[in-house]
Write the structure tokens for this entry.
Amino acid sequence: MFNIGRKHLVHIVKYRWWWMALTTLLLVPGIVAMIYSSITYPNHAPLKVGIDYTGGTILQYGIEEKITNKDLATTRANLEKEGIENPYLQILNVNSDQQQNTKSEIQSIISVRTKFIDKDSNDTETITGVLNEQYSNPELMSVSSVGPTMGKELFKNSFIAVALAFLGIVAYLSFRFRFDYALAAILGVLHDVLFVVGMFSILGLFYDVQIDGLFITAVLTVIGFSVHDTIVVFDRIRENLRYYSKKMSFGEIVDASVNQTLTRSINTSFTTLITLLALYFWGGVTTKDFVLAMILGIIIGTYSSIFFCSMLVDFWNDRQTKAKQLSV
Amino acid sequence: MKNKIIMFWVIMAIVITAIAVIVMKPTKLGLDLVGGSRLVLEAQPTDQVKEITPETMSHLQFAIEQRVNKLGVAETVVQQVGDKRLLVEIPSVTDLKEAKAFIGETAQLEFKKPAKEEKGVITWESTGLTGKDLSKSQLTTDSSGQWVVSLEFNSEGAKKFAELTEALVNQQMAIFFDGELQSAPVIREPIYGGNAQISGGDSGFSYEEAQRMVDLLNAGALPVPAEIVEENTVGPTLGADSIAASKKAGIIGLSAVMLFMIAFYHVPGLIADIALIIYSLILFALFKTIPVTLTLAGIAGFILSIGMAVDANILIFERTKEELRAGRNLFTAINSGFDRAFTSIFDSNMTTIITCVILYLLGTSVVKGFALTLALGVMVSMFTAITVTKNFMHLIFGTGELKHPGLFGLRKDEIGAAYQAAETQREKARFGILD
């Protein structure tokens, strides 16, 4: 009836072991980075965590000059001389057309991260003073501060949020599909989350990228998107099973379903990616890492729903059939 | 057909309402976009107040509100979150350091008596008379023209003050303001009636100093000290930058998605684009009506939802194309495209909504904004991508004949002659062709 017999672009069942190997290959670098980080970081976290979770203060200054890494090193030394403990400095470059938009003179943003500055401390004035000496007219653009107890609480909440999201999705999928489909979808989600977290672990090691509350939001969005994608494929498997289960093997149906939904999977991810890339290149400086996490998540989510989840369902079905044959 | 025309006008009415709302209502922008300060204060138990009760919290909230209002900034927010925290939002403040200092201060007024004297240094001890016993404070001048802060005690305070001055005749009594000694006059005679004055010591108060003290005293002492546990302050420059950047990203993202849809799906793609514009209008109008405070993360959620909103259309059109390839007649192909894609769309959107609900319940305010915009977006997109597109498709392809497969981005040979196949009575009934 449909193009169920059309030439397939991807073969899930035939190359099952290849897809398994590719999946492993994608995940290994991130896992290695996470293990390495857990061992080497003083707080034994698999990722570099930002002030949202550890507590601390970030001050951002707009500077009218282009800042180099050498300038930054001088600033760091000066700050330490003035008694600021372990300041962590970063340059955020303002792109030129953003300047045209707002006619601002600011070329670079320096972000200074320190331990939590409470209301009795004069650290903010000290830091502003140091920057004032080195650069002309630094403008304090933003302050974010999270107290140490608050950080622990936020961490706990994020953890609960992710766990609840998993549970909610398993419950919904078990209700709408079979439990084994739900399980495959969740394994797919775990795979995607592991990949994104692994990538950020690598970014943390090499580029000092830190995760914050927005990162967890991005991960949760990726979870939603990844399941979303998987459901479309599973929905098609379910539909095809209804019509063709007598004529075709389960593996053939999986292959056909994946191919039927292939264009859609790729197109949807592509339109979502378009908007994310626009946000990444032209959007606000402060949401860049957040958007990057989603870009990575959506690419891997598309991969996993096409190759990984459907392979799992087929694999599962195979074993069940074999078990049945044995018992007969 | 009649139903479809009515539906078309209903959609138009919604669009016009949305545009009217957008034009008339202001957008509520978050502090990270307009600049401002967002503080989370936590009540700290003291030796006197060991437990933070709901009553303590409402006192604290009242006192903080008074102080925040004194800043003279519009649309400030003081709101209790959880058991012992207050959320304070102060938009568009230029001198944020000062705003923060004002809130943080405990404004403790205390009267102390001398405990002992060693080598001319007096140590003071508490008398139990504090700012809580005060009924009001005023700015006046004394006989020499110096600014002084006059105090009027409440009945209990007046009693305590009288007892204290009786006991301290010919001794000094110290007035401490926020732990700092303000003045230590010698009590000549007992003071009855409950009135007293604070002078600024030898150098006297400046007008500003005295006025500020009066304000703080009138605002009432905080029942317990409050610590800032979280702060997010954004200057106006960064906010303006973010708005400009988000606008640009939004326009580029939206146009690129629209171009892609036309390139890939031709006429249906164009219809999806119109639906997408309607989607953006309705969603934006909803933001203004509810109102949803737009933050940077919220705008990111909005822009992201544009990419996701066309998902339903892609699902439907892919299905329609498939049905056309399989030899269905155009009308059936369109209808079964919508019909068959619906479960996928519904199930997948439900999972997004589940995660949004969780984010909304557990997240911080930044995360809440993102979750709310994304969830609203998903719900509105179900309406525009399904109802609106279906209506337009029916109006345009209502004749049921597809003379030019290219309109759907298909080649003639992909369809063959099959597209002209007559529908069976059952199929017509199922997809409502008979109406």
Summary: The radius of gyration of chain B is 34 Å. Chain B has three domains: 2-29+235-430, 36-105+226-233, 109-218.
